[in-house]
Structure formats: C-alpha cells, structure tokens
Amino acid sequence: MIGEDLRLTSREISDSWFEDRSHRIGADVEPSGKDTATETNAFIDRISVTSAKEIAKLIAELQNLRDFLHSEGQRVHREISGYVHLNEAAVKAT
Q1: Domain that residue 92 falls in
Q2: 84 found inside a domain
Q3: pTM score, two decimals?
C-alpha cells in the first residue's frame, strides 16, 4: 500500500516535470538561464510541498499502525496469560 503511493508520486513528479517543459518544444526563442532557474525553483518548491505532505501522511499512517500493533500485542499477552492460568488450573485438578 505504502509502496504503491510512492510509485504513484514518482510517476506524478515525472509527468509534472515533462508537462512544465513541454510548452517549450517548438518555441522560437530559447529561455534564458534566469527563466529556467526560476521555473526549476518553482517546480522544486511544488514538489517539496507535495513530498512533505506525502511524508507527513505516511508518518501518520505508520503511527496508527504502531498503535494498533501495540494494542494487539497487549491483547495477545492477556490471552496467553489467560491460557496459562487455565492450564495451571487444569494441571492442579488432575
């Protein structure tokens, strides 16, 4: 699930980069270095925000998963303790 989100994000980044650049194909005037730098910086800013949001989302998902696994571990521990007590009572009864 998490890996699929990352692959999708990578594909979206690639598509976005080429879409930003596609308007230049066939243009009569080459962009100046300043224009290219400005566009590249704007692109990186957009990607950084998207990446930061994705990372925050993944962290939240992982924290929820950690909490779930912790509570499941406690539940399993309680069940095992119950079986231990049941087993001890069965041994004493025989």
Answers
A1: 60-94
A2: yes
A3: 0.50
